[in-house]
Amino acid sequence: MSNLQNNVGTVGGQKIYHSIKDPPLFFVMMRFNVKVVLLFILLIGIFSLLLLYSYCGVESYAYRSNSKYLSLSRLDMQGAEEIECDINGEYVIGCRKEGDEVYLPFSFLHKYFEIYGKLATYDGLERFEWSHSYSKVYHPKQEYDPKGVFMYFENYNVEVRERVKCVSGVEGVPVSTQWESSGYYYPTQIAQFGLSHYSKNLTEPEPRKKVIEDAEKEYAKWFVPTTASVQRLFDKELSSRILKFRTSDNYREGVKLKMDHVLDFVISLNLILSDNSSLSVTLQNRETKDIYNLHYITSSLLITLQDNNVYYGIGSSDEWKKMTRDLIIDLQKGLSYLDKDKSKHKIPRSKLKIVQIVLQGSGALDNLTLSSSEHIQQFYDAAEWFVRNQDGKTGGWEIPVKRKLAAGFRDLQPGWYSSMGQGHAISLLARAYHHSGGDTRYLNAALNGLKPFRVPSSKGGVLATFLNKYHWYEEYPTKPASFVLNGFIYALLGLYDLKVIAPPGEADEAEFLFNDGMDSLRNMLPLFDMGSVTSYDLRHFTIHTAPNLARWDYHATHVNQLLLLHTIDSDPLFAQTAERWIGYMSGKRSAHN
Ligand SMILES: *[C@@H]1O[C@H](CO)[C@@H](O)[C@H](O)[C@H]1NC(C)=O
Ligand SMILES: *[C@@H]1O[C@H](CO)[C@@H](O)[C@H](O)[C@H]1NC(C)=O
Ligand SMILES: *[C@@H]1O[C@H](CO)[C@@H](O)[C@H](O)[C@H]1NC(C)=O
């Protein structure tokens, strides 16, 4: 998306150049050299196998590589002898024998069976904890409520994810780098951002909130240089008092507010800025005393970094704008912008404080607050994005990047729709319609978002039909169809949310699509059961490859989705299947003949 880059803005009359080339070299290399990289990985694989093989022949692999095992064996396995274990006649590892029992190193079992384990100490007693899987099952406490928490999304922190480049200053929603390193708006991710904030609003304690300046009751002590001016005026149009500011044309010195504010790092304000104006917030690391400046500038630039200055463009409209920024997220995304190792730049909230706010150029502000969170505001930022960015004709929210699901499927070309993106958006918009007390812009966007559910994948929609019979809403509308399970159920949830929240007479289409989809799910769910794990999609059926087994977090998502459906649909299939699949997570397997 070219509008995310290239632009320059100004702070204090200084031009800001966006000097960083996008995408970074690393990604360019990857894109053109996928084959070379794969070959390289293959060679490394072969090399390490050879190495392992010869190494094991000479000496115990486990003995060397796992010192924990070594110390256990010294204490508890006196009298144990070393013994070679021949693995399927393919290679040999070092094991222990004590009487008739043989002990295999856990590091080997971990790799061989993909099971997990760690040493843990309780009340001074060390023990080994074995687990078959690593993901969490959420048992719903009550019937699913489309006006309530979405799934268990109160636990999500979408904007913290490494594949989120930053939260756009213009749009107030995250920008993804998952499939395109320069960044793009990904409807599924934006909806998850909004739904997580909505869910947090319902589950977290009340936020702290401090009004800093509202030009009515709270006056901040701005430092105004002689070349600048600040006025508090009544704005007739808004019927509210606002704070107007102007600094001198050479912009050398801004209007400043010194602060010493800790803990609450979400800034929110109504703002209007003329061209070449800016609002900057200075943060300080309380331990190292390092200073960081976050500059919000009138530009369409997405984000850039120069020394300890992070810049976000907030657009350049001459209209009032409600701006809500999590300063910690903004700082972290800024500092890690150029670095592949994102974790390096994590500065805990507790170590930072706000020391200054600076205004430069000219403009006005109102309702300036600092809070511990602004979940509902961020939820509405997402809802507004969906209202603004829907294709009115098709009802879709396009995904502007190419997606290759796997060899054997044709690539999805930029502009494709996803049933999961549509469904999530509908879940979000239905909640916005409810929360806003009936703002029909949200309802209409949600209703319009149903359109692609009737349009076959081959015609730009998200509908696939299994064996000419069962309708399936495709997360990835591939050719041939892929039948991804979790995306389909998320789409069903969106349909359910709208069917429940839409006023009578407007819920019919959502209801029809939901019932039709549930019928498909009931009939097709067994196809995803692999006897000890689940399958992520049905590619083994449509392109005749090996099944694409769901990793444990996706398997847990399947389980969580079925448990949730069980609270709104009495068919015992959902509960029974969920129970069996929970069993798989602790190693249970279907019986064999
Ligand atoms: C949730 O939103 C309401 C406004 O709808 C607000 O009054 C409340 O403080 C918010 N609570 C949290 C935890 O965000
Ligand atoms: C903003 O800055 C640019 C470049 O310095 C200048 O050309 C432009 O006239 C300025 N705009 C305003 C409204 O001052
Ligand atoms: C500030 O908040 C008050 C109260 O919510 C509102 O009436 C006013 O319009 C807001 N100011 C701006 C500039 O939007």
Automatic annotation (TrEMBL):
Major localization listed first in the record, in broad terms: membrane
Record organism: Brassicogethes aeneus
Family annotation (InterPro entries): C5-epim_C, C5-epimerase, Glce_b_sandwich
GO cellular component term, pick one: Golgi apparatus
Family annotation (Pfam families): C5-epim_C (PF06662), Glce_b_sandwich (PF21174)
Keywords: Isomerase, Membrane, Signal-anchor, Transmembrane, Transmembrane helix
Membrane topology: Single-pass membrane protein; Single-pass type II membrane protein
Catalytic activity: [heparosan-N-sulfate](n) = [heparan-N-sulfate](n)
EC number: 5.1.3.17
GO BP term (any one): heparan sulfate proteoglycan biosynthetic process
Pathway it works in: Glycan metabolism; heparin biosynthesis; Glycan metabolism; heparan sulfate biosynthesis
Domain D-glucuronyl C5-epimerase C-terminal: 390-582
GO molecular function: heparosan-N-sulfate-glucuronate 5-epimerase activity
Keyword Transmembrane carried by entry: yes
Subcellular location, record wording: Endomembrane system; Membrane
Name used for this protein in its record: heparosan-N-sulfate-glucuronate 5-epimerase
Family of the protein in this entry: Belongs to the D-glucuronyl C5-epimerase family.
Domain D-glucuronyl C5-epimerase beta-sandwich: 240-362
Enzyme class: isomerase
Membrane-traversing stretches: 36-55
